[in-house]
Structure formats: structure tokens, C-alpha cells
Amino acid sequence: MSTIAQKRGFGAVLWDYLTTVDHKKVGILYFGAGFFFFLLGGIEAMIIRIQLAVPNNDFVSAGTFNEMMTMHGTTMIFFAAMPILIGFMNAIMPLQIGARDVAFPFLNALGLWLFIFGGLLVNVSWFLGGAPEAGWTSYASLAMNSATHGTDFYATGIQISGFGTLMGGINFLVTIINMRAPGMTYMRMPMFTWTTFITSALILFAFPPLTVALFLLTFDRLFGSQFFNVAAGGNTIIWEHFFWIFGHPEVYILILPAFGIFSEVISTFSRKRLFGYSSMVFATVLIGFLGFMVWAHHMFTVGLGNIANAIFAVATMAIAVPTGIKIFNWLLTMWGGSIKFTTPMLWAAAFIPSFVMGGVTGIMQAAAPADYQYHDTYFIVAHFHYVIVGGVVFGIFAAVHFYWPKLFGHMLNETLGKITCILFVIGFHLTFFIQHFLGLMGMPRRVFTFLDGQGLETGNMISSIGALTMGVAVVVLLINVVITAIKNESVANDPWGDGRSIEWAIPSPPPFYNFKQLPLVRGLDAYWLEKMDGKTEMTPAEPVGDIHMPNGSFIPFMISLGFFVASFGAIYNQEHAWGIPVLIIGLAIAFGSMLVRSLKDDHGYHIPKAELLEDEKGVKA
């Protein structure tokens, strides 16, 4: 048994996670919270599909349907997909570059708790008079006229969560630039690290416009300003510009980490080096750059004019080129490879045709005259979900099965994993493929029911059956997690046997300091190169020495709690006398915690060399 583990103790697990700054535990907390919100968003989606299963249904009212639709989109984008991917970026990227942690562990924990409290704030609106109802994009013309406080919870909750995401993006950028292991040049970084790097740059530039928009909306709603009130000289269309200048890069903030995951999975289980690595890197950079050039393709029907529409149409078509490069590189990586169809590889194989279908319908919408017909129909719903579910969610499930043994020290059951994959993929195509045709037949999106005799009955029923199938697949995954956690059968460093990057060279799960000695990286697929030389571990780049580690802290939790409390005061300040006092108390908790942090002299702690050597003996014994 590990000496260091003994000294850390096995009690107070809850306190350990509340105060942790370890990137792996922070990543696990991102997974846990993200999957909680994923299940919540999934339940909301099921309610939507039950309501639309048959004509003239009254399973929920029109108002409740609007809330469900708004909360499904908001929850899945902001509080499920992105946090789960940030969890993988947190847990895996530092291991891939040979770092002992991220650059700013305290800020990493703060970003986590801001996300969690932001997500809770938006969802608590269900119990306080009504959830947001203006759509996940919350267009100002609808949001300004919303009668409940749901939109206020939306604006404040996403602001709080967005600050956490922005901190995470900056943290990852600094970590990758400054903390790579000796020998790891940029062009030797694994693709998942590259996509984390570009995604973090996108976060850095995309989230400030959203923050500005949410501030303006909050001030309009809560404090009587008139930024979006056309009658008072405001501009309601400017919300759409702000939102989509964030919202289109957000699509790539979601899909690029999934691309990185699939690059690792396909290369590993084809047992080949990734085909065209350099072109993959430059395609990723180009996608990140062009992602900021195309926001107004969401606004072709607003009336920007032919010139603006033409420019954004051409830019949208251009972004298909680097994406196409990636598709061909994945196919050519598999071509001639010795493919093992593990569960992660099955997800990768399902992803390529599914994502291509989403991409093709995207190019259809890039033609502005055609988009006038597609816009606000179920064709858009189908396209969006083919990209986000067929790309992002497939990537998340692939990563869950691929990296689970590295993070938790035991494998998920392969048979149950393949059942999950097959059920989910079938359910996904049943749900969304038919929606292309529903849209072309004229079914508008965001309608809570439809009339009998319009020819929409069969398509909607098939779609709802598909959604139920996806729900069953997620239940199978949860059963898999529980069963394998109870069995808890330990696995080796490289449980798949074909690991190529250096995270597979250390124990599963990794020790809290990751690498006893920083590894020497001798090329791309560094661990594979070592295995080709008959080694089972990375060549060390330094002798064993003392390791400096950061202390845990409860302060990130308290700062986030303070902003959570203050939000209630801001939201209710005009109706209740207690609003301003609660706002002041919340801000006092947050800023008081920051003050404590600035006054507290926290230099972390050292793990002595002797203790590391003793721990190694304990592990080997």
C-alpha cells in the first residue's frame, strides 16, 4: 500500500473533494456535475419528445414546453457538454504533456465551483416561479418581455459559470505553453492537447462578448437600463450579434476537444501513427480562426443585406475545408491499420458518418437563399443535433470508455459498453434523421404541438421512439459504471495495450503528483517510441528529487457560494426589501474570501525525495 496514500488518510472524502486543487479530482468533479446536468437535460428532452409524439397532445402546457425547450438547450450546452469536456481537458491534458498539475491549481478549483453554482442557480429557477422561457439563445425581444424571473436566473447563472470557464481557458493556455515536459515541442504534442490548446484560445476570445451581452441584459431586466429596448432607442438585434459572436465559436469549443479525443482513439486502436499529423494541427488552428468569421450565418433572415449574407456564406463554406481534412485523415489512419473494435473505437466509427451528415446539412444552410427556407424549421434542429450529438456527445462517450481505466483504475465492461453504443447510435439516427424531412415538410421548431392530418404524425412518433432508445442506452451506461465500480478490478498502466502518449506510462489511477520524474519526450507518440525500444516506462529527464505541490483550499468554494447568494439579492432587489442586504452579504462572502486568500501566505508543501522512493517500494510490493 502507498505510504503517501496512508499519510493522506482515507477519511473525510467529502472535505477532500470540496477543498481539492488536484487537476484530476477537479476533472472528476467536472464529470460528476456535468453528467448530473446531462441527465437533467436528457429528462427535459424526453418531456419535449413525449409532448410531440402525437398531434394535439396536452402532456405539458405551451408555457411549460417553452421552459423545457429553453432549459434543455441551456443545460446541455452550458452545463453538460462543455463542463464534461473541460473535465477531460483537466484530467488528461496535464498527463499528456508530462506536467504535475495545471499552472494555476487554485484558479482551476475556483472555475469548477463557479460552474457548479452557476448551473445550480439557473436550475433553481424551476422552484422559484418558473424557468427561463425565451429559448437557449434568449433573444432580447423575447427575454425583455419574459414575465417571470427565469430569464434573470439564466443571465446571472451563465455569467457566474462563464467566469469559471474563462478562468479554465486561460489556465490551460498557460499550462500548455509553460509546463510541457523536456523534449515536448509543439509539434510533438498529442492531438487532444492541441485541441485543448485551440479550444482554450477560443474560450479566451468568445466568452467576453457573451459576458458583455449578459451584463447588458441583466441591467435592462433588473436595474432599468434600455440597451435592448427599441422604444427607448435601444437595439434588439445587437443581442444576436453579441450572442452569436460567442455562439458560433462555442460550437467549436465543443467539437474540437471531441476531435482530439477521436484522434487519440482512432490512432490507438488502428495501431498506427495519426495520418497527416501536421495537417491535422493546422486544420485545427484554421477551424479556430474561421470559427470567429461566420457568426452571422445564424442571422441570414435578419435583414443584414446581400453583401453581408454573401460574405458570411463564403466564410461558412470555407470552414468545411479544414473539417474535411480531418475526416480524410481519420479515414486514412484507419486505412491499412490493425483495427481493434473496442467500445471507444465503435463510437469513433459511428462518429465519422454521423458528423459528416451534420456537416453536409450545414453547407446546405450556408447558402443564404436556401437558408430562408430552412430557417426556424426542424431541419435546423436535425442539423444542430447531428453536429452536437453525433460529434460532441459521441466524443464524450468515447472518452468515458477510453480514459475511465486511467482515471479510476478499473475498466468499464466492454459488452455493456458496446450495448450502450449500439442502442444510442440507433436511437440518435431514429430521433434526428427523420427531423430533416419534418423540417422540409414545414414543421416549425419550438412549437409545442401540431395538428392532425398535416402528415407530421409518423415522423414525430419515430423521433420520440428514438429519444426513448437513447435514454435506455444512458441507463445501460449508468449500470455499467455501478457494476464495475463495485467489482473494482485493478488495471495496469496501459490497460488497452496500445497506448501511444505518455499518460499511459504512469499508474492507473495516477499518483497525485503524476510523474515522480519528468519524462523525456523523444518524439511524437512518445510512449510508443519507448515501447518500441523494449521499455515499459518513460525515460526520465531528471533525477528523483523533492516535488513541490499546492495545498488544497476551501476558499474557491466560498467565493463561488458568495456570488451564488448575491445573485438572489440582485434578482429580487426590486420586489423585496431583503434583496439589497442579501446582495451585499453575498458579495461580502465572495470578496472577503478573496481577501483571505490574498492575506494568507500559502506556499504549498514539499514531498521529500526519500518519501517518493519509499512510496515506490510500497507500490511495487
TrEMBL record:
Subcellular location: Cell membrane; Membrane
Membrane-related topology note: Multi-pass membrane protein
Residue ranges crossing the lipid bilayer per the database entry: 28-50, 70-92, 104-128, 153-179, 191-217, 237-262, 274-295, 307-332, 344-364, 384-404, 416-441, 461-483, 554-572, 578-596
Keyword vocabulary terms for this entry: Cell membrane, Copper, Electron transport, Heme, Iron, Membrane, Metal-binding, Respiratory chain, Translocase, Transmembrane, Transmembrane helix, Transport
Recorded catalytic activity of this chain's protein: 4 Fe(II)-[cytochrome c] + O2 + 8 H(+)(in) = 4 Fe(III)-[cytochrome c] + 2 H2O + 4 H(+)(out)
A Pfam match: COX1
Cytochrome oxidase subunit I profile domain location: 9-522
Gene3D superfamilies referenced in this protein's UniProt entry, alphabetically: 1.10.287.70, Cytochrome c oxidase-like, subunit I domain
Domain of life: Bacteria
Involved pathway(s): Energy metabolism; oxidative phosphorylation
Enzyme Commission number, as recorded: 7.1.1.9
Family, similarity comment: Belongs to the heme-copper respiratory oxidase family.
PANTHER family, per the entry: CYTOCHROME C OXIDASE SUBUNIT 1
Function as written in the Swiss-Prot or TrEMBL entry: Cytochrome c oxidase is the component of the respiratory chain that catalyzes the reduction of oxygen to water. Subunits 1-3 form the functional core of the enzyme complex. CO I is the catalytic subunit of the enzyme. Electrons originating in cytochrome c are transferred via the copper A center of subunit 2 and heme A of subunit 1 to the bimetallic center formed by heme A3 and copper B.
Protein name: Cytochrome c oxidase subunit 1
Annotated organism of origin: Siminovitchia thermophila
